[in-house]
Amino acid sequence: MSPKQNAPYVIDETPGRKAWCSCGESAKQPYCDGSHKSKNTGKTPVIVEITEAKKVAWCGCKRSKNGAFCDGSHSNL
Fold this sequence. Notes:
Blueprint: E1 9-13, E2 16-20, H1 35-38, E3 46-50, E4 54-58
């Protein structure tokens, strides 16, 4: 996957803890790969617990007011 984008990352998720990248620097978008530390972004990942298998629209633009989940903010860019 590529760096942040102006669209959600829509993924069929399985249950478990996920670390959503909030800084946009991860090479494993939408998940954190620790790049925030090496690039001193001042941001940390958002930990999300997925409780059941489902399709998730992860925020790709990093501007969502709905945390890790897309709220359509990218359409205002």
